[in-house]
Amino acid sequence: MPKATTIKYPPGPLYKTRPFKIVREFLHDPIESIQEISNKYGDIAYFKLGRQHIYLINNPDYIEKVLVYGHRSFTKGKKLQVAKAILGEGLVTSEGDLHNRQRRIIQPIFHPKQVTVYGQIVTEFTNSMELRWENGETVDISKEMMQLTLGIICKSVLNYDVKSEAEDYSKALTTLRNHGKRLKSPLGHVLNKFPILPNVKGAREAKEKLDELVYGLIRQRREAIQSKINSYDDLLSRLLQAQDNGKSSSRGTTASAGTGSNFDSSSPGMSDKQARDEVMTIFIAGHETTANALTWTFYLLSQNPKIDAKLLDELKSVIGDAGTVAVEDIPKLEYTEKVLRESMRLFPPVWSMGRHVDSDFTLGDFTIPAGSSILMSQYVMHRNPRYYNEPNLFYPDRWNAKMRSSLPRFSYFPFGGGMRACIGESFAWMEGILVLAIIARRWKLRLVHGHPVELDPSITLRPKYGMKMKLERRD
Ligand code: HEM
């Protein structure tokens, strides 16, 4: 990094006199801190967090430059070390050639055409969840959605039915997530070396439980492939049979064949460890985000009865009284789509994204030196009054054709963008719309009186105390 005196920094909070103030503020309420800095300093702001030089980007064109046009200057950076402890070198955490190759292999599983095949799984699982529900019962809808989406992703991409174990696996994933949070604290890595501590022991057991499941599935599938009785075309089969031919993908990557250490040189496919990392990544990335989106949507509907009524009107006319909903109905569920879109505007499941600057990069009037970090927040951008009238209002009808065509591309980016854009976006829209339609057609969900609703902004945006809701069957 060049000498500090030669760098022209964008405006931003200095905190010179109280350097720990910003760290404390960030730990306490990162969203509020970012929101304040963005409001005060605009498109690009600079501040130091500990020894890190951070550039907060709050302009859609700049975000597009970072994610789409300049992606070669950035990596996801060291911050991912914590995630790597759980996910290994899967699609979310890997970089460079390994990432390009894995992405090429996995991409077809999430092709929009393939995704429609998964629609039936979504409706089946949602129907059987709501068959369990009782009129007047109180549930934590956040938990229900986590278990539902975990079941759906396991069945869709692994052809594995978690059934009654969904709760156990969901708990194991939550344990790992909480442990990941603790690892981020200054003493986290030191404490992690003491398996006698209950938290550390719990996290190791949770990881073992999930590893046991995934390695078990890998073993079974290898046997099926070897004895040529494998008839599945799911993620696991593709991963295990993958032979990267090194062709340039449509995304313009040029990874060469079989050079990565994660491909087993003695067999044509991927090593068990690499397959495990990819499966674990899809497990986690593919269920928690959608579950959060749905949870916040039900919360918003409970607070906005007129919108709930309008949604029900559409559902009645498209689905009818008793009929169930299918993928083919999705294009007709226009208002349902707007409700979900607006909910992810207000409560984006991934609320911020970071990048490490590998080589100097120019944005507007500033050159961001290598070694710095870039921060972009969906939460803050999605509530920017420059792009959204009354930005804090839940108003699905704002998403009309005129408004959509006038918005800059990266003023709404719940799924990120560019080379590292969400691979599961089509899946998430299909799943989100179908689950919302099925549940909202048959149930009205009321927030339990006095239940505290607060944000828990970790990697995803969860409700801090879950979301206790009373189920009322619609007639
Ligand atoms: C509402 C639901 C979802 C949201 C809001 C969401 C959001 C995102 C975002 C913002 C990123 C980019 C992160 C970055 O660039 O730093 C991402 C990446 C990713 N997402 Fe999603 N996601 C959702 C659902 C899913 C689903 C259903 C799957 C899989 C079935 C999935 C799998 C992934 C994977 C594997 C990546 C890493 C892609 C790469 O780096 O190549 N996501 N997601």
Please tell me about this protein's structure.
The chain is an alpha+beta fold. The protein has a domain at 1-87 and 351-393: 2-Layer Sandwich (Uridine Diphospho-n-acetylenolpyruvylglucosamine Reductase, domain 2). It contains 18 helices and 12 strands. Strands 1-2-8-5-3 form a 5-stranded mixed sheet. It has a 3-stranded antiparallel sheet with strand order 4-12-9. A two-stranded antiparallel ribbon has the order 6-7. Strand 6 (361-363) and strand 7 form a beta hairpin. Helix 7 (141-158) runs antiparallel to helix 12 (272-285) and helix 10 (198-226) crosses helix 12 (272-285). It is globular. It binds protoporphyrin IX containing FE.
Question: Which molecules other than protein and nucleic acid are bound?
Answer: protoporphyrin IX containing FE
The CATH class label of the domain at 1-87 and 351-393 is Alpha Beta
CATH topology of the domain at 1-87 and 351-393: Uridine Diphospho-n-acetylenolpyruvylglucosamine Reductase, domain 2
Output the strand order for the largest sheet. Answer: 1-2-8-5-3
Summary, kept brief:
The chain has helices at 19-28, 30-41, 60-69, 81-87, 96-106, 112-132, 141-158, 166-183, 188-191, 198-226, 235-241, 272-285, 288-303, 305-319, 334-346, 378-381, 401-406, 425-442; strands spanning 44-49, 52-57, 74-75, 138-140, 353-357, 361-363, 366-368, 373-376, 443-447, 455-457, 461-463, 468-473. With 475 residues, it is an alpha+beta fold. Strands 1-2-8-5-3 form a 5-stranded mixed β-sheet.
